[in-house]
Amino acid sequence: MYLIVTRSFPPEIGGMQNLMWGLTNEISKNYMIKVFADYHENYRVFDEQVSFSIERVGGIKLLRKYRKAQLIHEFIKQNKVEGIMADHWKSLELIKTNKKKICLIHSKEINHDKRSNLNKRVLDVLNNVEVVVANSKYTKNLAIQCGVDESRVVVINPGVDTAQVLDKKSLNKVESLLKYKSPRLITISRYDKRKNHEKIIMALRNLKQIYPQIVYICVGYGDEEKNIKKLVEELDLVEQVMFFKDISNELKNSLLAKSNVFVMPSIIYKKSVEGFGIAYIEAAQHAIPSIGGIDGGAADAINHGKTGLICDGNDLDSVYSSINLMLENKKYLEYGKAAKENSVKFKWNKIIEEYKKIF
Predict the structure, then answer these.
(1) Pairing between β-strand 215-219 and β-strand 241-244 as defined by DSSP bridges
(2) Per-residue confidence band for 104, with pLDDT thresholds at 50, 70 and 90
(3) Are 86 and 94 in contact (CB under 8 A)?
(4) Do residues 153 and 341 lie in contact, with contact meaning Cβ atoms separated by under 8 Å?
(5) Are 4 and 24 in contact (CB under 8 A)?
(6) Of 294, 288, 279, 330, whose CA–CA distance to 307 is shortest?
(7) What is the mean pLDDT of residues 82-109?
(8) Are 107 and 139 in contact (CB under 8 A)?
(9) Do 337 and 287 touch, CB atoms closer than 8 A?
């Protein structure tokens, strides 16, 4: 039996929650598992529908961490446990056992100054586990720079579930919303500085001179929403930018499927960096190529010059040129076809084979 220890798990919504659900669900098809997850108010309905045991731990954040560790120690004493896999170094910080330990790393959470208190805490955990799973080559290199023992680190990219067939009504609804707007750019993400909506919007000002009917679709929410909308107004791009939030997955995926290019040229902002970018793969499943940033792990998800383009997100000319290159002669059709073919290798039933090697 393997224990999965996680702070992020459905029914809570988010990228980490999706990752841990996909991975846990696939592992459960191959091994007996038990999940220790944080309490969520709507957990009962969700937990009753899964095929494995989930123990929820509630209480205030600090005490919850100690309580979860105590429950795990008690469970290990009473059951035959082969190993523990955790979503985050903090999930393993209080767990003291000689059982095999595997810890996932994503980038931002390990990106602390060397010899700082947080860096020491990270290394105390990661240099005492058997395997550290980095989500990209970038994250592996970052971990090594931070002091993690290189021999412990392996790269396993996140997986995706097979894209669902979209309802024709939803696709038709999107087509009527967009009317004759073309070409179509889209970003699905939080409105964070790191995601770099600002540079895309600035590039759009020049692109609309070449493509008068161009549209940029923004799906998400976040701290930068007001600033992004203000910039759109200042640059007189209200007709070219459409905002969506709190929409269904069906509508979100239909907007994606009806777009031409997924654009997210992420940058490093303070300590925040794009470790991988599963959104690029989700776009690829719909034959939508991506433009990602040179900072972070996008290069693991995008094959530059084949399934999309990697640009310097800090350089407006680079962002503009990459979008323009993709739109010229509808190059996105060729890239999109290759992206869809490439996305197959990121399906969970393929990715799990890499995890089997370390279990």
Answers:
(1) parallel
(2) very high
(3) no
(4) no
(5) yes
(6) 288
(7) 96
(8) yes
(9) yes
Domains of the chain: 2-156 (3.40.50.2000), 168-345 (3.40.50.2000)
CA atoms within 13 A on the CB side of 188: 25
DSSP 140-192: HHHHHHHT--GGGEEE----BPPPPPPPHHHHHHHHHHHTT--SEEEEES---
For residue 61, pLDDT over 90 is answered with no
- Give the SS3 label for residue 33: strand
Q: Kind and range of the H or E element at 292?
A: strand 290-293
pTM of the model: 0.92
What percentage of the chain reaches a pLDDT higher than 90?
92
Which pair of tokens denotes residue 321? 């040129």
Rounded CA gap, 101 and 85, in Å? 6
Judge whether residue 103 has pLDDT over 90: yes
Average pLDDT, the chain: 95
C-alpha count within 13 angstroms, C-beta hemisphere, residue 82:
7
**Distance in angstroms (rounded) separating the CA atoms of residues 338 and 68:** 45
Q: Give 139's DSSP letter.
A: H
* DSSP character string of 196-250: -HHHHHHHHHHHHHH-TT-EEEEE---TTHHHHHHHHHHTT-TTTEEEE-S--HH
Q: How confident is the model at residue 271 (pLDDT cuts 50, 70, 90)?
A: confident
The residue type of 72 is I
Query: Could you tell me which residues come within 8 angstroms of residue 201 by beta carbon, excluding any fewer than 6 positions away?
Result: 216, 228, 231, 232, 235, 237, 241
Q: What share of the chain is helix, strand, coil (3-state, %, to 5)?
A: 45, 20, 35
Is the confidence at residue 343, as pLDDT, over 90? yes
